[in-house]
Amino acid sequence: MIGSTAVRLRGVNTFLFLGLTLLVAGVIALSSRAVLPSGPLNTEEVKRRSPRHGIVVAVSPPGADVGRDILQKGGNAVDAAVAVACVEVLQSEGWYIPDAAVAAGLAEVSWPARLEVVARRPLIVLDCAHNVASALALVQTLQASFPPARRLLIFAGSSDKDLAGMFRVLAPHFAHAYLTRYTTSLRSVPAERLAELLRANGNLPATLCRTPADAYQAARAAAAPDDVIVITGSVYLAGELRPLLVAG
Fold first, then answer.
1. Which one, of 185, 175, 234, 237, lies nearest residue 207 by Cα?
2. I want to staple 77 with a disulfide (CB 3.0 to 4.6 A). Which of 26, 223, 229, 230 is the partner?
3. Is the dihedral of CA 146, 62, 14, 159 positive or negative?
4. What is the pLDDT of residues 149-159, one digit of tens each?
Protein backbone atom coordinates (compact mmCIF):
# COMPACT_ATOMS: atom_id res chain seq x y z
CA MET A 1 0.00 0.00 0.00
CA ILE A 2 1.47 3.33 -1.05
CA GLY A 3 0.86 6.18 1.36
CA SER A 4 1.07 9.92 0.96
CA THR A 5 0.81 12.91 3.25
CA ALA A 6 -0.13 16.51 2.50
CA VAL A 7 0.98 19.30 4.83
CA ARG A 8 0.01 23.00 4.62
CA LEU A 9 2.37 25.53 6.22
CA ARG A 10 1.36 29.21 6.45
CA GLY A 11 -0.17 29.35 2.99
CA VAL A 12 2.71 27.54 1.27
CA ASN A 13 1.64 24.07 0.29
CA THR A 14 4.34 21.50 0.89
CA PHE A 15 3.44 17.96 -0.08
CA LEU A 16 5.47 14.98 1.03
CA PHE A 17 5.15 11.92 -1.18
CA LEU A 18 7.34 8.95 -0.29
CA GLY A 19 10.03 11.33 0.91
CA LEU A 20 9.83 13.62 -2.14
CA THR A 21 8.93 17.22 -1.31
CA LEU A 22 7.08 19.20 -3.95
CA LEU A 23 6.29 22.89 -3.67
CA VAL A 24 2.88 23.60 -5.20
CA ALA A 25 1.47 27.12 -5.44
CA GLY A 26 -1.03 27.51 -8.32
CA VAL A 27 -0.57 27.90 -12.08
CA ILE A 28 1.78 30.42 -13.73
CA ALA A 29 -1.00 31.55 -16.05
CA LEU A 30 -4.14 30.06 -17.52
CA SER A 31 -2.26 29.07 -20.66
CA SER A 32 1.00 28.03 -19.05
CA ARG A 33 2.51 25.04 -17.34
CA ALA A 34 5.71 24.27 -15.51
CA VAL A 35 7.42 20.90 -15.24
CA LEU A 36 9.64 20.01 -12.31
CA PRO A 37 12.97 18.65 -13.59
CA SER A 38 14.87 15.96 -11.80
CA GLY A 39 16.97 17.32 -8.97
CA PRO A 40 16.32 19.98 -6.30
CA LEU A 41 13.48 22.45 -6.75
CA ASN A 42 14.68 26.03 -7.25
CA THR A 43 12.26 27.90 -4.98
CA GLU A 44 13.70 31.29 -5.97
CA GLU A 45 12.83 30.55 -9.59
CA VAL A 46 9.32 29.61 -8.51
CA LYS A 47 8.95 32.95 -6.71
CA ARG A 48 10.36 34.89 -9.67
CA ARG A 49 8.04 33.31 -12.20
CA SER A 50 4.87 33.32 -10.13
CA PRO A 51 4.24 36.81 -8.68
CA ARG A 52 0.58 36.82 -9.77
CA HIS A 53 -0.69 33.37 -10.62
CA GLY A 54 1.60 30.91 -8.81
CA ILE A 55 2.82 27.73 -10.45
CA VAL A 56 1.73 24.12 -10.81
CA VAL A 57 4.68 21.80 -10.40
CA ALA A 58 4.46 18.41 -12.07
CA VAL A 59 7.02 15.77 -12.98
CA SER A 60 5.60 15.31 -16.47
CA PRO A 61 4.12 17.59 -19.15
CA PRO A 62 0.76 15.72 -19.19
CA GLY A 63 0.43 16.22 -15.45
CA ALA A 64 1.07 19.95 -15.79
CA ASP A 65 -1.46 20.09 -18.63
CA VAL A 66 -4.13 18.58 -16.38
CA GLY A 67 -3.55 21.23 -13.70
CA ARG A 68 -3.69 24.01 -16.31
CA ASP A 69 -6.89 22.66 -17.85
CA ILE A 70 -8.65 22.37 -14.50
CA LEU A 71 -7.81 25.98 -13.63
CA GLN A 72 -9.13 27.13 -17.02
CA LYS A 73 -12.45 25.53 -16.10
CA GLY A 74 -12.60 27.40 -12.80
CA GLY A 75 -11.19 24.65 -10.61
CA ASN A 76 -8.95 25.04 -7.59
CA ALA A 77 -5.33 25.02 -8.73
CA VAL A 78 -3.90 23.78 -5.44
CA ASP A 79 -6.38 20.93 -5.10
CA ALA A 80 -5.79 19.93 -8.72
CA ALA A 81 -2.05 20.01 -8.15
CA VAL A 82 -2.33 17.76 -5.09
CA ALA A 83 -4.38 15.23 -7.04
CA VAL A 84 -2.02 15.28 -10.01
CA ALA A 85 1.05 14.90 -7.76
CA CYS A 86 -0.50 11.89 -6.00
CA VAL A 87 -1.32 10.27 -9.33
CA GLU A 88 2.21 10.85 -10.60
CA VAL A 89 3.66 9.12 -7.54
CA LEU A 90 1.44 6.12 -8.17
CA GLN A 91 2.39 6.13 -11.85
CA SER A 92 6.07 6.18 -10.92
CA GLU A 93 5.46 3.07 -8.81
CA GLY A 94 4.01 1.21 -11.77
CA TRP A 95 0.29 1.93 -11.46
CA TYR A 96 -1.48 2.36 -14.80
CA ILE A 97 -3.49 5.58 -14.59
CA PRO A 98 -4.11 7.25 -17.98
CA ASP A 99 -3.85 11.02 -18.09
CA ALA A 100 -7.30 11.12 -19.68
CA ALA A 101 -8.72 9.40 -16.59
CA VAL A 102 -7.10 11.97 -14.31
CA ALA A 103 -8.50 14.85 -16.36
CA ALA A 104 -11.97 13.32 -16.40
CA GLY A 105 -11.90 12.65 -12.66
CA LEU A 106 -10.91 16.21 -11.80
CA ALA A 107 -13.46 17.69 -14.19
CA GLU A 108 -16.29 15.70 -12.61
CA VAL A 109 -15.48 16.40 -8.94
CA SER A 110 -18.46 17.33 -6.79
CA TRP A 111 -17.59 19.01 -3.48
CA PRO A 112 -20.65 20.16 -1.50
CA ALA A 113 -20.23 23.38 0.48
CA ARG A 114 -17.01 24.30 -1.25
CA LEU A 115 -17.95 27.41 -3.25
CA GLU A 116 -21.17 25.59 -4.05
CA VAL A 117 -23.78 27.57 -5.94
CA VAL A 118 -27.07 26.35 -4.49
CA ALA A 119 -29.45 28.90 -6.03
CA ARG A 120 -29.63 31.72 -8.55
CA ARG A 121 -31.41 35.08 -8.56
CA PRO A 122 -30.24 35.78 -6.03
CA LEU A 123 -27.06 33.82 -6.38
CA ILE A 124 -26.44 31.85 -3.18
CA VAL A 125 -22.93 30.53 -2.54
CA LEU A 126 -22.29 28.03 0.26
CA ASP A 127 -18.69 27.71 1.42
CA CYS A 128 -17.18 26.09 4.50
CA ALA A 129 -14.28 28.54 4.90
CA HIS A 130 -13.44 28.48 8.61
CA ASN A 131 -10.06 30.19 8.96
CA VAL A 132 -8.25 33.24 7.63
CA ALA A 133 -6.56 31.45 4.74
CA SER A 134 -9.77 29.92 3.45
CA ALA A 135 -11.65 33.20 3.93
CA LEU A 136 -9.03 34.91 1.78
CA ALA A 137 -9.39 32.19 -0.86
CA LEU A 138 -13.16 32.70 -0.80
CA VAL A 139 -12.84 36.45 -1.34
CA GLN A 140 -10.34 35.98 -4.15
CA THR A 141 -12.64 33.51 -5.89
CA LEU A 142 -15.68 35.76 -5.50
CA GLN A 143 -13.74 38.58 -7.12
CA ALA A 144 -12.27 36.48 -9.92
CA SER A 145 -15.07 34.06 -10.78
CA PHE A 146 -18.37 35.71 -9.86
CA PRO A 147 -20.02 38.78 -11.39
CA PRO A 148 -19.77 42.13 -9.59
CA ALA A 149 -22.77 42.49 -7.30
CA ARG A 150 -23.93 43.57 -3.87
CA ARG A 151 -22.93 40.77 -1.50
CA LEU A 152 -24.69 39.73 1.70
CA LEU A 153 -22.85 37.62 4.28
CA ILE A 154 -24.36 34.92 6.49
CA PHE A 155 -21.76 34.01 9.10
CA ALA A 156 -21.32 31.73 12.10
CA GLY A 157 -18.06 30.55 13.62
CA SER A 158 -16.33 28.44 16.21
CA SER A 159 -14.63 29.66 19.37
CA ASP A 160 -11.31 28.06 18.44
CA LYS A 161 -10.97 29.99 15.17
CA ASP A 162 -9.48 33.39 14.39
CA LEU A 163 -12.85 35.04 13.81
CA ALA A 164 -11.43 38.55 14.12
CA GLY A 165 -8.97 37.77 11.35
CA MET A 166 -11.73 36.33 9.20
CA PHE A 167 -13.82 39.47 9.63
CA ARG A 168 -10.88 41.64 8.63
CA VAL A 169 -10.68 39.68 5.39
CA LEU A 170 -14.40 39.40 4.68
CA ALA A 171 -15.92 42.68 5.86
CA PRO A 172 -14.62 44.99 3.08
CA HIS A 173 -16.29 42.84 0.44
CA PHE A 174 -19.85 42.73 1.77
CA ALA A 175 -22.71 45.20 2.14
CA HIS A 176 -24.38 43.58 5.16
CA ALA A 177 -23.80 40.66 7.52
CA TYR A 178 -26.31 38.30 9.11
CA LEU A 179 -24.68 36.86 12.21
CA THR A 180 -25.93 33.68 13.83
CA ARG A 181 -24.81 30.58 15.68
CA TYR A 182 -25.20 26.99 14.62
CA THR A 183 -26.86 24.53 16.95
CA THR A 184 -24.78 21.41 16.36
CA SER A 185 -21.65 22.19 18.39
CA LEU A 186 -20.83 23.71 21.77
CA ARG A 187 -18.01 25.67 20.10
CA SER A 188 -20.52 27.89 18.31
CA VAL A 189 -19.95 31.57 19.14
CA PRO A 190 -23.06 33.62 20.10
CA ALA A 191 -24.19 36.16 17.53
CA GLU A 192 -23.68 38.95 20.08
CA ARG A 193 -20.00 38.06 20.41
CA LEU A 194 -19.65 37.86 16.64
CA ALA A 195 -21.12 41.37 16.42
CA GLU A 196 -18.50 42.66 18.86
CA LEU A 197 -15.69 41.11 16.83
CA LEU A 198 -17.12 42.46 13.60
CA ARG A 199 -17.38 46.01 14.98
CA ALA A 200 -13.76 45.84 16.12
CA ASN A 201 -12.45 44.45 12.84
CA GLY A 202 -14.64 45.77 10.06
CA ASN A 203 -17.03 48.55 9.14
CA LEU A 204 -19.97 46.35 8.16
CA PRO A 205 -23.60 46.69 9.32
CA ALA A 206 -25.01 43.50 10.79
CA THR A 207 -28.24 41.83 11.78
CA LEU A 208 -28.24 39.29 14.62
CA CYS A 209 -30.28 36.15 14.03
CA ARG A 210 -31.22 33.44 16.48
CA THR A 211 -30.69 30.46 14.14
CA PRO A 212 -29.02 29.83 10.77
CA ALA A 213 -32.46 29.36 9.24
CA ASP A 214 -33.50 32.79 10.55
CA ALA A 215 -30.34 34.32 9.08
CA TYR A 216 -31.05 32.76 5.72
CA GLN A 217 -34.63 33.95 5.67
CA ALA A 218 -33.57 37.49 6.62
CA ALA A 219 -30.86 37.63 3.96
CA ARG A 220 -33.15 36.12 1.37
CA ALA A 221 -35.83 38.71 2.09
CA ALA A 222 -33.33 41.57 1.79
CA ALA A 223 -31.63 40.35 -1.38
CA ALA A 224 -32.43 41.66 -4.83
CA PRO A 225 -32.38 39.22 -7.76
CA ASP A 226 -28.90 40.33 -8.85
CA ASP A 227 -27.37 40.19 -5.36
CA VAL A 228 -25.08 37.45 -4.04
CA ILE A 229 -25.65 35.76 -0.67
CA VAL A 230 -22.54 34.07 0.72
CA ILE A 231 -22.87 31.60 3.59
CA THR A 232 -19.57 30.85 5.31
CA GLY A 233 -17.61 30.69 8.56
CA SER A 234 -17.91 27.06 9.60
CA VAL A 235 -18.39 23.54 8.35
CA TYR A 236 -21.10 23.24 11.01
CA LEU A 237 -22.99 26.20 9.52
CA ALA A 238 -22.74 24.72 6.03
CA GLY A 239 -23.94 21.36 7.27
CA GLU A 240 -26.90 22.88 9.09
CA LEU A 241 -28.08 25.10 6.23
CA ARG A 242 -27.36 22.94 3.19
CA PRO A 243 -30.38 20.63 3.57
CA LEU A 244 -32.64 23.69 3.74
CA LEU A 245 -30.99 25.25 0.69
CA VAL A 246 -31.03 22.21 -1.59
CA ALA A 247 -34.65 21.49 -0.65
CA GLY A 248 -35.58 24.81 -2.21
1. 175
2. 26
3. positive
4. 999 999 999 99
